[in-house]
Fold this sequence. Notes:
This is BTB domain-containing protein. Residues 14-90 form the BTB domain. It comes from Nippostrongylus brasiliensis. InterPro entries: BTB/POZ_dom, SKP1/BTB/POZ_sf. The protein has nine helices and no strands. α3 (41-51) packs across α4, α4 (65-74) runs antiparallel to α5 (78-91) and α7 (115-125) packs across α9 (142-162). By secondary structure, the protein is mainly α. The protein has one domain: Potassium Channel Kv1.1, Chain A, CATH 3.30.710. The longest helix is centred in the last third of the chain and has 21 residues, at 142-162. 60% of the residues lie in helices and 0% in strands. It is elongated and about 65 Å long.
Amino acid sequence: MKTKCFSFVNPGWLAELSSFFAEYCFGEEAHNSLIIDDIKPCDMLEFFRCIFFCPMRKPLSVVNVSLILRVASRFEMKPVVARCEQFVARSANTLDRDRLFQVTCAVSHCDPNSSTMSVLVDKLASIKEEELSRMQFSQMPGDVVAEVYTQKFRERERKRQLWCCFM
């Protein structure tokens, strides 16, 4: 049985961050409520705590950035997506393999052409072949997977040329 959960949020705040909510709340056919049944209430609460000062904004972390990025992308919140991408770019070197994969999947779904994506692809390509082959690439778009392996191939070729010698 699904339980109902209500969140009352200032529509003006949402509209400032999101073109989706600006149109939904203040457009020609304005609405008073929105049913979001594909995102868990605890995830929406986490999202709201990270984007609003209530009474203090919760910081982005490696634990919540994938969720925040996914929801912000869905509701066209460009400032929030940009904040998440900046965080990811700064913290890419500290992500463990699983978090790196999770964050790369989230970024690839919302903004596959961002500069953050190239940082993540480079980081994924630096993982050992054995570890890389165990990852669930079916969750990631094919062009991103191809880019990871292309980058890995380029790095291998570059190293091979450095160690090449002629007799």
